[in-house]
Amino acid sequence: MYDIAIIGAGVIGSMIARELSFYDISVCLVEKENDVATGATKANSAIVHAGFDAKVGTLKAKLNVRGSKLMPQIAESLGVKYINNGSLVVGFNEEDESTLGELLNRGNINGVEGLKILKRSEILKIEPNIGKDVTCALYAPTGAIICPYDLAVSAIGNAMDNGAELKCSFEVTEIEDKGDHYVIKSKDDRILSKYIVNCGGVYSDKIAGLVGDSSFKVHPRRGEYVLLDKESGGIVSHTIFATPGKMGKGILVSPTVDGNLLLGPTAIDIEDKDDKSTTCEFFASIYDIAERSVSNIPKNKTITSFCGLRSVGSTGDFIINSPKERYVNVAGIESPGLSASPAIAEYVCNLLSKIGLTLIRKEAPITTRKSMHAFREASVEEKNKMIRENPSYGKIICRCEGVTEGEILDAIRTQPRATDLDGVKRRTRSQMGRCQGGFCSPYIIELLSKELNLPYEKITKFGGQSYVVTGKTKEKKR
């Protein structure tokens, strides 16, 4: 019997699990996929928004601004890369300038610090590649960038360091209320828990329905992205947004914490909660719209494209409530969900306390975690010392990103453990360079095979039936 079960191991569920793990309670995090951070968390804009866009008085506004302030310290504690690069919302005409004025006013009311409107001459001083038709911009110095799946993996790892348990491949199919606890069932397993927190993302309305709550609906909004090689990362230093519309913040152009250039996302409301396909039509439109905001984007440096699904709730705001005893919804967490995640964790803990969960903080909870990129970020002297102690750090496996065998083994051995190619990718950045795993994948499969004690051909890309190889091409006859 657990004190609390969290359904969904994305960045929201992981941050809540971390916060709850600081208290003297038992926590279990369940996830329907075979790894954590595989939904919206692995495919989003990776932006820590300043907080000027959300409507005044909403949970989005309150928790965005609070989360933005908490994020630098949390990222440092978890060894996660975070860069306070600031953001610019660019305008092209008088109508846009009026909208930017409204955002400025809204941001000031929300408590965002340092906002100001810049003229074109001022923009060019800090972003020389700004689009030729840009006339003005809202500058937000508190805007930042982060790696969302790095944050989720590290937060869950920190929670597990404090005793929290993780169950992957646990798709919740039934929830039974026994009066003083819930029985949470999957196809092949079950757990008992006194409290439940529903962080099911695009499936959160389905999870809510299992406890009899039909007060909201969630639909996916598909967003496609384009990623450019690190050669292009310096074209802009700030995150560049277009003036927002009714479907969101539009196509952005932003550096990433790892030095690439990110363009996107599109915004298409769909019904299929698993449709993460990319299309030629929107691939082309991303470039067209992005080039209006930023000049000199080198299309020929594109290395991959991908799609993420945003969880859009029917209320227009974050849905964080307790519609029945010992149960909490955390649903409709679209943008700025990543930015707000530390504050959402605080808010949910306070809500759980109000509805009866006793929270007594542990005397000495573990609040820090070693960076998954510690070797890469070490000095030459430190690297040499690590290689002497563990020669596997001296063997490069991924040449594009400079990832060593030691780092890959760490990813497979450290909780939450990577068990497939994409799991290793999210933790180490191997397979994320120009060749997209063309050279390093066979070596990583071999390491996974040995560490997991599985046949080479049983290693998958992302679990399930996503096998990479079917057998050897040249069997030696005896």
Account of the protein in words:
The protein is an alpha+beta fold and 478 residues long. Among the domains are: 82-144 and 221-310, D-Amino Acid Oxidase, subunit A, domain 2 (D-Amino Acid Oxidase, Chain A, domain 2), CATH 3.30.9; 374-458, Arc Repressor Mutant, subunit A, CATH 1.10.10. It contains 13 helices and 22 strands. The strands form five sheets. Strands 1, 2, 9, 10, 11, 12, 19 and 20 form an eight-stranded mixed beta sheet that branches. Strands 13, 15, 16, 17 and 18 form a five-stranded antiparallel beta sheet that branches. Strand 19 (319-324) and strand 20 (327-331) form a beta hairpin. The mean pLDDT is 95.
Q: Short description, anyone?
A:
The chain is of the alpha+beta class and 478 residues long. It has helices at residues 11-20, 59-78, 94-110, 120-126, 148-161, 204-209, 280-293, 337-354, 374-377, 380-389, 405-413, 421-428, 441-452; strands spanning 2-7, 27-30, 47-48, 82-83, 87-91, 116-119, 136-140, 144-146, 165-167, 174-177, 182-185, 190-198, 218-228, 239-242, 252-255, 261-264, 268-269, 302-313, 319-324, 327-331, 396-398, 403-404. Among the domains are: 82-144 and 221-310, D-Amino Acid Oxidase, subunit A, domain 2 (D-Amino Acid Oxidase, Chain A, domain 2); 374-458, Arc Repressor Mutant, subunit A, CATH 1.10.10.
